[in-house]
Amino acid sequence: MSRCSPRTVIVHAGDADGIYFARSQEQGDRLASEIVFSPDSGGQQTLATMTTPVDRPIIAMTVSPEVLVWAVASGSEPDGMTTVDAQLYVMDRTTQVTTIIDTGTDWFGPVSLSGDVLAWGAGSGNGDTGEYLHYVGTNAIYKLVDAPGLSDVVVRGDVIAWRSSTAGIAAFNLGRLTPAG
What pLDDT digit, counting tens, does each position of 87-119 carry? Predict the structure, then answer.
């Protein structure tokens, strides 16, 4: 198995098949990144490559039997004038076709994935305190709630958990997901 320095691995996710990870290297004002799969049987396979401005790193990753998802931070394009929202890259594990989802948010907390449902919090560091839900294969992004300082949402099976705050008191909420439609 080939090896990489732990300093180059920036995010990772695993499942019963192996480990998926992203590694990046600065090249001037650009960041060259690879999405790599390392199966339990050994070896490594590069699934995707991308180049972004250095201020737009890959910041989160998650995997399900159907898709591999990684998040790229918001930032500016090389012209210094154009700002790009954070994006989710959703790769179908069978076809390896990747779809880019413009989130309309400028940062992420962790990304959670269950079946065809993606959930994330915007992190609230840049003023967006939202927690979001997206059904893979649709164009819809649903805002669950604003939760200043608590932006965190998780999906497992058909259960969703999210944080909220009322009158300064934090709460963890549980609900059941329904199919998009």
Answer: 899 999 999 999 998 887 776 677 889 888 898
User: What is the torsion angle, in degrees rounded to the nearest 10, for the CA atoms of residue 74, residue 80, residue 81 and residue 85?
Assistant: -10
How far apart CA 10 and CA 56 sit, in angstroms, is: 12
pLDDT surpassing 80 at residue 165 = no
Burial track 42-70 (b if 16+ CB lie within 10 A, e otherwise): eebeebeebebbeebbbbbbbbbeebbbb
* Cα dist from 139 to 26, 80, 102, whole Å: 32, 28, 9
DSSP-derived 3-state class of residue 68:
strand
pTM of the model: 0.82
- C-alpha angle 108/114/120, rounded to 5°? 15
Among candidate residues 136, 146, 121, the one with its CA nearest the CA of residue 180:
136
Given a cut of 50, is residue 23 above it in pLDDT? yes
